[in-house]
Every structure is written in C-alpha cells, then in structure tokens.
Amino acid sequence: MSPSTSPRFFTEREVAHHCTKDSCWVLLGTRVYDVTAFLRMHPGGEALIRSRAGKDLTWEMEGPPHRHSPNARRWLEQYYIGDLDRGSGAEEVQVKLGR
C-alpha cells in the first residue's frame, strides 16, 4: 500500500473468508496482509501458510519453533492491505473461533 493511500479496514469475518490458494489473507495483530502472491515463495512451504489463512499469525511469527527475522517482517510489509476493524463485532467472531 502506498503512503498516499488511506488504509482499508476489514472485519475478522472478511479476513477469515480469504483462506484459499487464490486468495490468502492473514493477520499480524491488527494488520491485514494478502499473502497470496507469497505462498509459493515461503521457505517453509505453501501449505504452512495456507493452514493459517484467515487467522492471526502473531504466535507463529514470534515462535516457537523459530522466531521470524526482522527481514521476514520487512518482507511481509509489502503485502499489507489494511487493518482490522475492532469495532465490528470482532469479539463475537473470536468466541466462535475458540480464541
């Protein structure tokens, strides 16, 4: 997203719907990333990200089994598409997802 573009806001429900190889979104905290184009390049394999599609990756980025490098975090930023809209019933979705 370019600096001149206003961030978009998404609900957790919207993010959760993007969980296929053709549209793969993930969360890192409240930031939303469309990592579809990165799936085939992920060093850990495409399946690893796809199994976490539509979910928050904070735990996976912090480890274990390994903490992702600062470079990996910078790389992720190119896929940033917006932020999570916490005022949209996100708590209800979290309960349904067992969080």
UniProtKB/TrEMBL annotation:
Gene3D superfamilies: Cytochrome b5-like heme/steroid binding domain. Residues 7-85 form the Cytochrome b5 heme-binding domain. InterPro entries: Cyt_B5-like_heme/steroid-bd, Cyt_B5-like_heme/steroid_sf, Cyt_B5_heme-BS, Cytochrome_b5. Keywords: Heme, Iron, Metal-binding. Belongs to the cytochrome b5 family. This is Cytochrome b5 heme-binding domain-containing protein. The keyword Cell membrane does not apply. It comes from Ilyodon furcidens (goldbreast splitfin). The keyword Iron applies. It holds the Pfam family Cyt-b5.
